[in-house]
Every structure is written in structure tokens, then in C-alpha cells.
Amino acid sequence: MNPDASTAIPPELIAALQQADHVVVFTGAGVSAESGIPTFREALTGLWQRFDAEDLATPDAFRRDKELVWGWYEWRRMQVLRAQPNPAHVAIAGLAQLVPRLTVVTQNVDDLHERAGSTEVLHLHGSLHAPRCFACGRAHLLPPGIPEEPEGGRRLSPPSCQHCGGPVRPGVVWFGEALPEEVLDAAFAAAEACDLLLAIGTSGLVHPAARIPWLAKQAGAKVVQVNPTATALDDECTWTLRSAAGAVMPSLLSGLCQPK
Predict the structure, then answer these.
(1) Domains recognised in the chain with CATH numbers
(2) Which of 76, 85, 144, 220 is the most exposed place for a label (fewest CB within 10 A)?
(3) What is the per-residue pLDDT for 40?
(4) What phi, psi does 6 have (nearest 5°)?
(5) Which residues are marked as active site?
(6) Do residues 90 and 117 make contact, with C-beta atoms less than 8 angstroms apart?
């Protein structure tokens, strides 16, 4: 595949990837948005439009109205389950086959990277598919398959923990909560050890995740940004590819497949 002018990949970037021993791919909401998943801060639609997402994503909101919060997150989870990995997700999984080591670090709470074939994925903000008990913290296994999507605004009773009987909560990081320490430490370590970091579809504004490209740069790695709009990362990058991830990443993969 020959990239057009909007997705042309600098030869120096291809050379850097060919020489890299460890590549980190750091993804944000822009990647999942190309699969039709709304970004978290977009206005809610349908019967959910009378709510503010940031008011539902807190421990206090769950304490006040468990059924409302669980219903909203089940609605979000059903949206994800009905979505499909896009060309960027697929290309990222393919890139792992062409470099000695690739680590995916994502701010997204969906499983599109995994469904595209990525295996080493660090979820900084948790996952819609990994709920846990609000009381004891133990993991809760969801039934397989895609259940019927709850209507917007519908309250749903959360499951009960099989160990303590407490209410099960979504497995995401809420406002006011710390990121999972083990995952964050692993992401920081990967950034500090990589040769090249690709920041794809992320604004670079949400901390502490926003430190990841900076840590890679400080450790001597080349930082590449893929984003159709200007971001806080613009001044930190060796290369910025100003286009959608679904256009850039297949072109990058195609270039990397060419003989050295």
C-alpha cells in the first residue's frame, strides 16, 4: 500500500522503528472514537443527555444511586461490545509482529486492542469488562456474550459479590481515585526503557498518564505523535503525523514491511 500525501510516513521514522528493540504504543480516546465509541467528555445522548458524565463517574455517585451508575456503565459497555476494532487497532497488533518487543499502554477502558490481537496491554484507567466488588475489591466475572443493551437512563441493579455479598462496581478508575499502582509503574518503566514511543489519539493532558511520553523523551527515546489536531504533546515529539490513526497506522505498518 502506498501512503498518500496525508498519511506519508517519514523514511527516518521507518528507520527508527526498524532499529528499535522496544516500542511503546500509548493510546487515548481518539483511537476508540474511530470505532464509533464516544469520548468520555462528549455530551451524552438520548435519555442520558440530562446527566453529566463527570457526575456519574465517582464513588459518591455510586453510593447515592448504584442502579443509575451501573445502568450507565452497562450502556457504555454494550456500546463497546457492539463496536469493532478499527484499522489503527489492527495495525498496532500487527506492529507487535515486526519489532522485538511492543507494549501497548492505553487510557481507554474498552477491549478493542485485545480483540484486534494485542496481548501486552496496560489499562491505565481500568476496564469496563473487569468489574469488582465495591466492598471487598474482589474481581467479578461477567456472563459471556453480549446481553441486550439497556435503554438510556435505565436503572439496573448491580450484581452482588459472590464472596461478601457487596455490590459490584464498574472496573474503571473514577474521579478522585488513584490509577492502579502496579499498572502505572509498569507503564512508566516501559516508557523509560523503550527506544520509540507512539502517542496515538491522546491529548496529553490527563495526568498522571500524560507523563508517559515525557518520561520516554527524557530517557532518550524518540516520541511520535499521531493526531489530527494540535495537542499538548506537539513540542515533545520527534515527529507529528497530523492525521487520523486509522489512516496513519496501516501506512506506517506498510512502510515497515518494506526491506531495510
Answers:
(1) 1-37+85-127+179-260 (3.40.50.1220), 38-82+132-169 (3.30.1600.10)
(2) 144
(3) 67
(4) -80, -20
(5) 125
(6) yes
Q: Please provide the DSSP assignment of the chain as one string.
A: ----GGG---HHHHHHHHH-SEEEEEE-HHHHHTTTPPPTTSPP-GGGTTS-HHHHSSHHHHHH-HHHHHHHHHHHHHHHHH----HHHHHHHHHTTTSSEEEEEE---SSHHHHHT--SEEETTB-TT--EETTT--B-PPPSS-PPPPPTT---PPPBPTTT-PBEE-SBPPTTPPPPHHHHHHHHHHHHH-SEEEEES--S-STTTTHHHHHHHHTT-EEEEE-SS--TTGGG-SEEE-S-HHHHHHHHHHHHTS--
pLDDT tens-digit map of 7-49: 689 999 999 999 999 999 999 999 999 999 987 665 455 555 6
pLDDT at residue 42, as a whole number: 59
Confidence of residue 52 (pLDDT cuts 50, 70, 90): confident
**pTM here?**
0.92
pLDDT value at residue 204: 86
The residue to which cell 463517574 is assigned: 57
Question: Which residue shows C-alpha cell 523514511?
Answer: 11
